[in-house]
Design a protein that fits this description.
binds fe (ii) ion; OB fold (Dihydrolipoamide Acetyltransferase, E2P); 13 helices; about 475 residues
C-alpha cells in the first residue's frame, strides 16, 4: 500500500503533526522506499518517544522492518492459510445484508411504519385487549384498552400530562396523572404503547401505560462452558487510537499476559464480538482529517485486518459496522462490502447492524447503539456514565431506535429490522464510548467501551470516554471487567 505522489513537505508535516522534526536524509529514505509513508510515520513516532529529531538510522530500521512484514504478508496471502476447521457454531438469524429493498419512497415509509406497528402491537396484544380507537365513541364500558402510536406528549401541569395516541382508525387524547404521568413523560413520539383507562367523554384517563416489555425471566438461564468477549468503537486510524492499550489486549487474548489467572480466562474465550466503529473512517464529521493517523479508508481497514489477524485463530470474531464504518449511515446497516471484508482472516464473520446471531444456542443481538444518544438526551434520569440503563429502555420498548427522525437515521425497509422481535439472551452495543453491563429480566446487556481517548468533539460536548475496558462473559456464569487502559 504505497501512497502515491507524496512529497518531502508532506512527510515533514506529518512528523511535525506528531511533534517531531525529521532529518532531510531520513525524508529521502521515506520517499524512496516501497512502504506506506503513513505507516513509517506512525511506527517511527511510536518508537522515538521524546526524541528531538528523527534520524536516518531510526527511519531506515523502521522501513526495513515494515518491508519485511509486507513481504511476509504477501507470501502468506499467496498461499492463503487454510481456514481453521470449523470448531464453533455461529448462525446468523436475522441481518439486512443482501436483503435491503428500500428506495426511500413514500410507500416504503408507509410499509416501514406498518411493519413496526404490526410487530410491536403483536407483542402488546398478549397483555392488552385493544379495541380500535374509532370504536371508542360507541363503547359503553368504563374501562377501555387501546394500542397505538404516541403522536405527542405534553405536560399540562405538575400533576397532569396529555398524550395523543393514534392507531389506523383514529386518534384519542389520553390524560395521565401521578405515577402514570411520570411514565408518560418518558414516552417518545412514534413509539407504540398500550393504554388501559377510563373513558371520560371523548378522552381516556389512563390507569396504566403498557410497554411491550420482555417476560420476567427472559429466555431462561443458559449455561455454557465458554466465554465471549465484547468490544466496539476501536477507531483504527484515529490519532487518538490507544495503541498501548490495544497491544495489552492482544497479549491477553493470545494468553500471553504473563498472569496465570488472566491467561486461563483468555483460554476460555471462543468468540469476540465487535459492535461497530472498527475504523475511524473518513469525513464522518467536519475537519476529521486533522484527527486522523491514517487518512485513507483502505489503509484504515488494512490496518484493522492486520490487527485482528494477530489474534489466535481458534477464536471466532464477529464484526458489525457502526456510523464510522464504510457502509450506509441509515440503519439497518449491511455488513462491510467485500472490498474491505475480504482483507480479514477466515475466522472473522462480517454481519450487519443490527444482527441476531445464534452462538451455540445463545442468542446475541448486536447493535452499534446510535439511538442511545437520542434516549439519553431525551430521558433526564439517564446518562452516558451508565449506558446499560439506556439499553434497558430499548429492551422495554422492544425497539433498537424507538425515536424516529432524531439523530439515528433509519432506512425504511419493508420489514423493521430494528424491532426486537425475539428476546435475545445478550444485547451488545457500543457507540457512546462508555462501559456498562446489567441484567434485565434475564437478558445480559453490555455496552462495550472504546479504544480511543477523548476526541476534540467529545471535549466540546463534555463526554468522558471509558476506554480500554473489555467485558468477558460466560453465559450463565461470571462477568469479568478487564481494564487495558491506565
Ligand atoms: Fe465510536
Amino acid at each position: 500500500m504505497v501512497i502515491k505522489n507524496i512529497d518531502a513537505k508532506t512527510v515533514v508535516a506529518k512528523f511535525a503533526l506528531n511533534g517531531y522534526n525529521i532529518h532531510p536524509d531520513a525524508v529521502k529514505l521515506i520517499l524512496s522506499s516501497n512502504v506506506d509513508a503513513d505507516a513509517v510515520v506512525r511506527e517511527t513516532c511510536r518508537r522515538c518517544n521524546g526524541a528531538f529529531i528523527i534520524t536516518p538510522d531510526e527511519v531506515s530500521e523502521v522501513i526495513r522492518e515494515l518491508e519485511k512484514t509486507r513481504v511476509e504478508k504477501k507470501k502468506a496471502l499467496e498461499k492463503k492459510p487454510e481456514v481453521p476447521e470449523k470448531r464453533y457454531e455461529i448462525r446468523i438469524l436475522k441481518d439486512v445484508t443482501g436483503r435491503s429493498a428500500c428506495r426511500g419512497t413514500v410507500e416504503d415509509f408507509v410499509a416501514y411504519f406498518n411493519s413496526r406497528f404490526e410487530k410491536i402491537s403483536g407483542i402488546l396484544r398478549n397483555r392488552v385487549k385493544a379495541v380500535p380507537i374509532s370504536s371508542l365513541s360507541r363503547i359503553r364500558a368504563d374501562v377501555v384498552e387501546i394500542i397505538g402510536f404516541v403522536n405527542s406528549v405534553r405536560e399540562i401541569n405538575e400533576s397532569r400530562a396529555m398524550i395523543e395516541v393514534e392507531d389506523k382508525t383514529g386518534r384519542v387524547r389520553v390524560y395521565a396523572e401521578g405515577k402514570v404521568k411520570e411514565q408518560a413523560m418518558e414516552l417518545f413520539g412514534d413509539e407504540i404503547v398500550g393504554v388501559t383507562g377510563r373513558l371520560t367523554g371523548r378522552s381516556i384517563l389512563a390507569d396504566r401505560i403498557v410497554l411491550p416489555e420482555v417476560p420476567v425471566n427472559g429466555n431462561g438461564k443458559k449455561i455454557r462452558d465458554f466465554s465471549m468477549v465484547f468490544i466496539s468503537d476501536i477507531h483504527f486510524g484515529s490519532n487518538t487510537f490507544l495503541h498501548e492499550s490495544w497491544e495489552k489486549f492482544i497479549s491477553w487474548i493470545n494468553c500471553e499476559s504473563g498472569n496465570r489467572r488472566l491467561d486461563e480466562l483468555a483460554e476460555s474465550v471462543r468468540y469476540i464480538f465487535v459492535a461497530g466503529d472498527v475504523v475511524d473512517g473518513i469525513g464522518v464529521y467536519p475537519d476529521q482529517d486533522r484527527e486522523l493517523e491514517i487518512d485513507d479508508i483502505n489503509a484504515q481497514y488494512e490496518f484493522a485486518a492486520e490487527q485482528f489477524d494477530r489474534i489466535r485463530k481458534d477464536l471466532k470474531i464477529v464484526i458489525s459496522p457502526g456510523n464510522h464504518d464504510a457502509v450506509r449511515q441509515a440503519e439497518p446497516q449491511p455488513a462491510l462490502p467485500k472490498e474491505f471484508s475480504s482483507l480479514f482472516s477466515g475466522n472473522v464473520t462480517h454481519v450487519g447492524n443490527p444482527c441476531y446471531i445464534d452462538v451455540e444456542g445463545v442468542d446475541v443481538l448486536m447493535y452499534h447503539g446510535r439511538s442511545l444518544d437520542d434516549i439519553i438526551s431525551r430521558i433526564p434520569r439517564l446518562s452516558y456514565e451508565s449506558p446499560q440503563d439506556a439499553m434497558v429502555e430499548l429492551l422495554r420498548r422492544r425497539h433498537l431506535a424507538p425515536l424516529y427522525g432524531e439523530r439515528s437515521p433509519i432506512a425504511p425497509e419493508k420489514d423493521d429490522y430494528l424491532v426486537i422481535d425475539d428476546v435475545p439472551d445478550i444485547i451488545h452495543s457500543g457507540h457512546v464510548h462508555t462501559y456498562g453491563t446489567a441484567f434485565y429480566r434475564g437478558v445480559f446487556l453490555v455496552n462495550s467501551s472504546t479504544w480511543q481517548s477523548q476526541t476534540e468533539f467529545q471535549k466540546k460536548v463534555n463526554l468522558n470516554p471509558m476506554p480500554g475496558i473489555v467485558a468477558v462473559y460466560q453465559p450463565g456464569g461470571n462477568i469479568y471487567r478487564l481494564k487495558f487502559y491506565s
